[in-house]
Sequence to fold (390 residues):
Amino acid sequence: MKKNTIAIQSPFPHRDAYGAIAMPVYHTDAYEFDNATVMADAFCGRINEPDYSRITNPTVINFEERVKMLTGARDVVAVNSGMAAISNTLMCLAAAGKNIVTSRHLFGNTYALISKTLARFGVECRAVDLLDLEQVKAAIDENTCCLYFEIMTNPQLEVADTRALSTIAHSHGVPVVADTTVIPFTEFNSHELGVDIEVVSSTKYISGGATTVGGLIIDYGTVENFKDVMRRDILMNLGAYMTPHVAYMQTLGLENLNARYTLQSRNTLELATRLRTLKAIKSVNYVGFEDNPFHEISVSQYGKTAGAMMTIDLENEQACFDFLNKLKLVKRATNLFDNKTLAIHPASTIFGPFTAQQRAEMDILDTTIRLSVGLEDVDDIFEDIKQALE
Ligand SMILES: *Cc1c(COP(=O)(O)O)cnc(C)c1O
Fold:
């Protein structure tokens, strides 16, 4: 079956008692067993029956199974945020004395997780320039537990050569973990690019119009013991499993993901093209432009679309604040890939807690506004941006 069909028609793991067409929300903590033997088998993982909703829940399993069918992964674990997907994955791979080789361009919380939180447990952060493969080679050693990066960095919009990075990591026996949040996994096959574990903030495209916070750990089965340690140790002991209502909302989001993404990515290219004509905007950065330095590598790795995130640069910080304050339709908000168009000044918000020097090292500029383009008519989005620049 094609992905559009799988997203909608993949069968439930168990037929619903009433034949419900939408997977019901199993709002229950625990499950009753017919006898003590079955109960023991369930608790020890010899049979696949739910026992407790911190570990498994039918509504969440159904969501996980759909993502598994769409990606061809061996296992998918749904958790309660993108950060939970990232932290649980890294907790699964790292240990005291190990290092994580990663990019100097990272989502703010991910950078803080690796360089601060995990550092307290004796894990070293090695942030390098992923466009310089020699730096990556030099950073990897026998204590490297993974190579971690984002497929398109936010907000710099840098695209590294995923195949080349994976080849380097694998030649040292090092697993590759990629955050693929910014392009839906239905658009490309990250495992073919060499990714072993894919992490996704399902809060973004998948939740379906920004309904819920969630995360996915997509395991392609190429890292020894990952599934066992993840399911039987990390997931149980850290307690970040997705809740059933969220899984229900995100399953609905998955069903119409392609329809939304098709429109959203088309809107973004159209809007970016029009914004280039405005004098008040110093530059428009969008990987979908054919003259963008990362366009070619992005198309070859992630397909013809370039997502619904772009940035514009204005004269200075004051101009950015004035612009944000004058917006009427576009919302001043964080988040990405809502149905509504959103604008934010990353330097003073997401990266506000970092020092000016740290921001400079991460190429976070005071002049940049990040836009997440929604499903509204492009004419209206463009008019609002135009009037806010006057
Ligand atoms: C939003 C985001 C995250 C974190 O996800 P949450 O669901 O907010 O925890 C991680 N990586 C990227 C690229 C993101 O955009």
The radius of gyration is 21 Å. The CA atoms of residues 35 and 41 lie 10 Å apart. The chain is about 40% helix and 15% strand.
